[in-house]
Design goal:
Shape of chain B: globular
CATH architecture of the largest domain in chain B: 2-Layer Sandwich
Order of helices and strands of chain A: HHEHHHHEHEEEHEHEHHHH
Structural class of chain A: alpha/beta
Helix content of chain A: 40-55%
CATH superfamily of the largest domain in chain A: Thiamin diphosphate (ThDP)-binding fold, Pyr/PP domains
Radius of gyration of chain B: 30 Å
Strand content of chain A: 5-15%
Structural class of chain B: alpha+beta
Number of strands of chain A: 7
Strand content of chain B: 15-25%
Number of domains of chain A: 2
CATH topology of the largest domain in chain B: Chloramphenicol Acetyltransferase
CATH architecture of the largest domain in chain A: 3-Layer(aba) Sandwich
CATH topology of the largest domain in chain A: Rossmann fold
Distance between the termini of chain A: 65 Å
Largest sheet of chain A: 5 strands, parallel
Oligomer: heterodimer
CATH class of the largest domain in chain A: Alpha Beta
CATH class of the largest domain in chain B: Alpha Beta
Number of helices of chain B: 10
Strand order of the largest sheet of chain A: 1-2-3-7-6
Chain lengths: ~350, ~450
């Protein structure tokens, strides 16, 4: 397989419901019945999330953010899986799940705080059932499996989903999480976005077999889905979550997608991958195929697309404005979220630090 | 109101960047997030978008100039009204930079630094992983009272040298004995600067003169000048040393009557297939190399020391050494063996134009399998080129000039050039190198052979 054709041929085992050309196709095991309104709403999410991401990259280039990890190209995997979640389900993201955050109702400006250095998270995970971004690769898998085992013990009708990438699949934490989830039959969905590159390391250096097949070795089902097909991602994730909630145990979903941008704003992908590979994947853009489907089936007109574009522009401008207005944190906030309950040692340290600050002339 | 855009830190902890190219000029209208400039950092080339809509008032840095992070590079007149009363809401980048600069002491206030801490310098602090912070640059507000923490009078006697692992590595690399240095960092630890200073002292003692690469107008009285080694110069140096001291080089020379080649070049120029393309003798040399490489594939292979294998490549990514404003670079034409002659001409044109514009991407410079260096353009006959790392041979193409030459027993004036082939003797024997060089020469003497052997 040459670099240029990497992933360009859809593997036979890939679940796809919408082709890159916007044609609806059938799959024997997975199907989805969406109203025109629902398809339009998925399209809106895809476009708005891409705009949020674009603005964040620009803000980094303006010097307003220290760093940003772009989701460009992975919108369908994130919106499809994010929209499959119910309010009671709990999601554990990496640092790139801006689309999932959007589906969980997290205000995009709150995503920027961490990258601007004004807080360590920015939202209340319990309020959105969306955990804080995790920078350490793969450690959230362990948190998620622990949470899922908690759900099991509480006996509630919900599930956990954890996001990670192809690079994380090589991590010990991720493999341990597979073992625990398997033997405890935990209600969890492992959602791996295989975007082909772990920074500069290609997928060929991570695995000799398709990643989804690893699940079989741990004793639970694995499935590969076209990660640029929002319909398929929604259908497959929905099924996996239902299985989890109904006591069928974990599922590994490998969303086969492509990171169209740099790993982060600090990375330069032209140093390790050829331009033709990106061009091949541009033809499989997750947004264009939904647009094409809507248009060809006369489910939306130009006025609709224009209105979404206008909404996206407003969202970008609003985000830019509110980002620069984010206040600097109060130094005393560092003591706020260490423990859930009052703690004598923290109290002592808080007092000492306050006295220390007091010791300076303002 | 007028806004000034300050050079942001687009990486993590970068301190400076070079202005590569401006996309706008004073008087141009710009929109939010429009790309206005390309900069090159230690990590990559980055396009910067402007955060405002308005008209460019001034470009405050020139192309090629290296600018520190936080320094204004472009001014834009925006259509926002200046805020009434009080300070303008400065952009965050500005605020960040300002935070790092100490406020002037208030009237009658205690001078900063009175209670132990050194007076802060006006310097931005960029923290690179493993480098630690620069000492003395932190913002300190004056204390109301001297600190009264107990037991700080005299620390325990220093038992060991204090230095972070990267600093220890640096010292080892530079041959500096850490125990002979007095540290200026926190708790008397030794910093990178301390090591560099110590290393500088050692060097000065040895007094080794360094060559200066470019002829510069020296100021009167200046007899020596020191130019920091960085960027392309540094890369070139590393690559050349790595190649020269791992691959045993052999160089062979061949003088060739290229009269027929020069005729062929003239006739090709007139063909419609080459309309708009620059056809040079280099094109035919490149073609001859490609044909010869097919006849002798081992020339186009590489020694894999780690695997103890010879990797024979059945494709040619043909490198062309190019002198650019940024220094020597070797972009290559991917899969050149599969190109028709007009395609090869076009690829050569594009490669040289991209290189001259300084826009060659790193991917275009990697993966080469054979290199041609056209030293003739500098007006010399030949040289002993050093193999591009990752390859096994390099051909130098000298100038083509009128020379006396024996044709059919008679002395004649012919177009003569000199070819030099350096190859890696670990895998290419003298016989193979000679055969290859002879083949290239034969094709230049009679370009019809390219057809016969292709």
């Amino acid at each position: 397989m040459t670099d240029a054709s990497r992933g360009a041929d859809a593997p036979p085992e890939l679940v796809q419901l919408l082709t890159p050309e916007g044609e609806r196709v059938e799959h024997p095991d997975y199907d989805i019945d969406l109203t025109p309104e629902e398809v339009r709403s998925l399209y809106r999410d895809l476009v708005l999330v891409r705009r949020v991401d674009l603005e964040a990259v620009a803000l980094q280039r303006h010097g307003e953010l220290g760093i940003w990890a772009s989701l460009l190209g992975q919108e369908a995997a994130q919106i499809g899986s994010g929209r499959a979640l119910t309010d009671a389900d709990m999601a554990f993201p990496t640092y790139r799940e801006h689309g999932v955050a959007w589906c969980r109702g997290v205000d995009p400006v709150k995503l920027l705080g961490l990258f601007r250095g004004v807080n360590h998270g920015g939202w209340d995970p319990a309020e959105h059932n969306f955990h804080l971004y995790t920078i350490v690769i793969g450690s959230q898998n362990l948190h998620a499996v622990g949470y899922a085992m908690g759900i099991q013990r509480d006996g509630t009708n919900s599930a956990a989903i954890v996001y990670f990438g192809d690079g994380a699949s090589s991590q010990g934490d991720v493999n341990e999480s597979f073992v625990w989830a398997s033997v405890f039959n935990a209600p969890i969905v492992f959602f791996c976005q295989n975007n082909q590159w772990a920074i500069s390391e290609p997928i060929e250096k991570q695995s000799r077999i398709p990643l989804y097949r690893r699940a079989a070795g741990f004793g639970f089902p694995g499935i590969r889905v076209d990660g640029n097909d929002v319909f398929a991602c929604l259908a497959v994730t929905r099924k996996a979550l239902e299985d989890a909630r109904s006591g069928q145990g974990p599922t590994l979903i490998e969303a086969f997608t492509y990171r169209m941008g740099a790993h982060t704003t600090t990375d330069d992908p032209t140093r390790y991958r050829v331009a033709s590979e990106l061009e091949a994947w541009k033809l499989k853009d997750p947004i264009e195929r939904v647009k094409s489907y809507l248009f060809k089936n006369e489910l939306a007109d130009q006025a609709f697309f224009d209105s979404i574009d206008a909404e996206a522009e407003d969202l970008g401008a609003d985000l830019r404005k509110r980002c620069t207005e984010m206040p600097d944190p109060d130094p005393m906030e560092i003591f706020e979220h260490v423990y859930a309950l009052p703690h004598s040692l923290i109290e002592e340290e808080r007092k000492a630090f306050a006295a220390y600050l007091e010791g300076f002339q303002s | 109101m007028r806004r000034e855009f300050k050079l942001p830190d687009v990486g993590e902890g970068l301190t400076e960047a070079e202005i590569v190219r401006w996309h706008v000029k004073p008087g141009d209208a710009v929109k939010v997030n429009q790309i206005v400039v390309e900069i090159e950092t230690a990590k990559s080339i980055v396009e910067l978008p402007i955060p405002w809509t308005g008209v460019v008032a001034d470009l405050m840095a020139e192309e090629g100039q290296t600018v520190d992070v936080g320094v204004p590079i472009i001014a834009v007149d925006t259509d926002e009204a200046a805020p009434s009363g009080g300070t303008a809401s400065a952009p965050r980048g500005a605020a960040l930079a300002d935070d790092m600069v100490p406020a002037p002491p208030a009237e009658g206030a205690v001078e900063p630094g009175v209670h132990g801490s050194p007076a802060p310098k006006e310097e931005r602090q960029a923290v690179l992983v493993g480098y630690g912070v620069k000492t003395g640059a932190a913002k300190r507000r004056p204390r109301k009272h001297p600190p009264t923490s107990p037991g700080t009078a005299a620390g325990p006697a220093r038992l060991a040298v204090l230095a972070k692992p990267p600093v220890r590595k640096l010292a080892k690399d530079l041959g500096v004995d850490l125990t002979m240095i007095k540290g200026t960092g926190p708790q008397g630890s030794i910093t990178r600067d301390d090591v560099h200073a110590a290393a500088g002292a050692v060097r000065a003692a040895q007094a080794v003169p360094e060559p200066v690469e470019a002829v510069r107008q020296a100021a009167p009285g200046v007899r020596e000048e020191r130019i920091p080694v960085k960027g392309v110069r540094k890369m070139t140096a590393q690559a050349m040393v790595a190649s020269a001291f791992t691959a045993p080089h052999v160089t062979e020379f061949l003088q060739v009557d290229a009269t027929a080649t020069m005729d062929a070049v003239r006739r090709l120029r007139e063909m419609p297939d080459f309309a708009g393309l620059k056809v040079s003798p280099l094109l035919l040399v490149a073609k001859a190399v490609l044909v010869a490489a097919r006849r002798h594939p081992m020339i186009n292979s590489v020694w894999d020391e780690q695997a103890q294998e010879i990797v024979v490549k059945h494709y040619v990514n043909l490198g062309i050494a190019a002198a650019t404003p940024r220094g020597l670079i070797v972009p290559n034409i991917k899969d050149a063996h599969a190109l028709s002659l007009p395609e090869l001409a076009r690829a050569l044109n594009e490669l040289t134009e991209t290189a001259r514009a300084g826009k060659t991407q790193p991917a275009e410079m990697s993966g080469g399998t054979f290199t041609i260096t056209n030293v003739g353009v500098f007006g010399v006959d030949t040289g002993t080129p050093i193999i591009n790392p990752g390859e096994s041979a390099i051909l130098a193409f000298g100038q083509v000039r009128d020379m006396p030459w024996v044709v059919d027993g008679e002395l004649a004036v012919r177009k003569v050039t000199t070819l030099a082939l350096s190859f890696d003797h670990r895998l290419i024997d003298g016989e193979l190198g000679s055969l290859f060089l002879r083949d290239v020469g034969a094709m230049l003497e009679d370009p019809l052979r390219m057809l016969a052997w292709a």
